[in-house]
């Protein structure tokens, strides 16, 4: 598949899904304002949609041969019979409801301020994450049948409440285990959870310390605009998709790190003092994992106390 064919197929798929999101947003907006419903509809099925998009991504970036596994919730999401390996696809939707200081939750797509008290003060949740079965991942890695993860991060970029328009971004990343020098470092993330955690399950935060330790490769990013003032049958031009060439190199910002970690990073050859970033591979090979509590199933990996390096 050449670049043009990939872009057309990929953007075409997203546009079809965006029409679904347009109708979901239209319905949710109507319920919010007419019934005070406050029930989430938008992107409820994003996981399956991302699997379909990931199939197109894998067949373009990784020499083809991938197909849907039809697992229905067990086993790999995608498989490649030529190499005898499978792919796990994980999505993380950061376009979530916010919480007002009066404790009311509401969707910022539909309201500029709290619909109950009118306050603009709100707490934006940071707990959306990729859920991974660490025990199964470790088992498949040791069998040699695990190809890679495909992670998709969905974020809210712009909202126009009065005009009823919204812009989302979808960013796709790959984490493979082909680099022999990195293999054990990446494997240790899952091994530590299995051996030391209260549950063999990883909740991986996007753009976190542990996320960068897995050396993700950014493959592609798209912006998706949706006009939900009317349903799709009445507003066929209510969606647009902008394809953005992704930067293959993912760099780690010092801002996510603790003091001792920053000192290590500043001495790495790839350190850029203007950007305040380092090469992801160098970061993984030189900055050790944090000794954190693994007992909390939904613990925030960015704020647990670091016992390996001093603060």
Description:
This protein is of the alpha+beta class and 311 residues long. It is built from 7 helices and 14 strands. Strands 1-2-3-8-9-11-12 form a 7-stranded mixed β-sheet. A 3-stranded antiparallel β-sheet has the order 5-4-6, with no helix packed on it. A two-stranded antiparallel sheet has the order 7-10. Helix 1 packs antiparallel against helix 2 and helix 3 (134-143) packs antiparallel against helix 4 (180-196). The termini are far apart.
SSE string, helix = H, strand = E?
Answer: HHEEEEEEEHEEHEHEEEHEH
Strand content: 25-35%
How many angstroms separate the termini? 49 Å
Spatial sequence of strands, sheet with the most strands: 1-2-3-8-9-11-12
What's the short story on this structure?
The chain has 311 residues and is of the alpha+beta class.
Entry keywords:
311 residues; alpha+beta; seven-stranded mixed sheet; 7 helices; 14 strands; 31% helix; disordered C terminus
Secondary structure layout plus pairing:
Layout (H helix, E strand, L loop, with lengths): L2 H33 L10 H16 L4 E3 L9 E3 L4 E9 L4 E3 L4 E2 L15 E2 L6 E4 H10 L2 E15 L4 E12 L3 H17 L4 E4 L4 H5 L3 E11 L11 E7 L5 E3 L5 H8 L10 E3 H7 L25
Parallel strand pairs: 3-8
Antiparallel strand pairs: 1-2, 2-3, 4-5, 4-6, 7-10, 8-9, 9-11, 11-12, 13-14
Helix pairs in contact: 1-2, 3-4
């Amino acid at each position: 598949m050449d670049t043009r064919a990939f872009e057309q197929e990929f953007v075409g798929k997203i546009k079809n899904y965006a029409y679904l999101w347009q109708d979901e947003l239209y319905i949710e907006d109507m319920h919010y304002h007419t019934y005070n419903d406050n029930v989430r509809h938008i992107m409820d099925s994003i996981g399956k949609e991302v699997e379909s998009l990931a199939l197109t991504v894998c067949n373009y970036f990784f020499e083809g041969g991938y197909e849907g596994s039809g697992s229905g919730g067990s086993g790999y999401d995608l498989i490649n019979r030529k190499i005898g390996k499978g792919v796990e696809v994980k999505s993380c939707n950061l376009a979530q409801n916010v919480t007002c200081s009066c404790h009311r939750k509401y969707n910022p797509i539909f309201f500029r301020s709290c619909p109950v008290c009118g306050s603009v003060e709100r707490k934006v949740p940071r707990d959306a994450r990729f859920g991974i079965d660490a025990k199964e991942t470790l088992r498949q890695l040791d069998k040699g049948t695990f190809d890679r993860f495909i992670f998709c991060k969905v974020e809210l970029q712009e909202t126009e409440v009065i005009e009823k328009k919204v812009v989302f971004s979808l960013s796709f990343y790959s984490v493979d285990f082909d680099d022999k020098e990195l293999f054990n470092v990446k494997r240790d993330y899952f091994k530590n959870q299995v051996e030391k955690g209260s549950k063999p399950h990883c909740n991986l935060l996007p753009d976190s310390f542990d996320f960068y330790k897995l050396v993700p490769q950014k493959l592609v990013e798209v912006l998706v605009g949706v006009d939900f003032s009317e349903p799709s049958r009445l507003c066929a031009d209510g969606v647009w998709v902008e394809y953005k060439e992704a930067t293959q190199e993912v760099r780690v910002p010092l801002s996510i790190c603790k003091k001792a970690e920053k000192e290590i990073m500043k001495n790495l050859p790839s350190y850029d003092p203007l950007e305040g970033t380092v090469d992801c591979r160098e970061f993984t090979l030189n900055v050790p994992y944090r000794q954190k509590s693994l007992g909390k199933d939904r613990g925030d990996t960015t704020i647990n106390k670091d016992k390996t390096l001093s603060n």
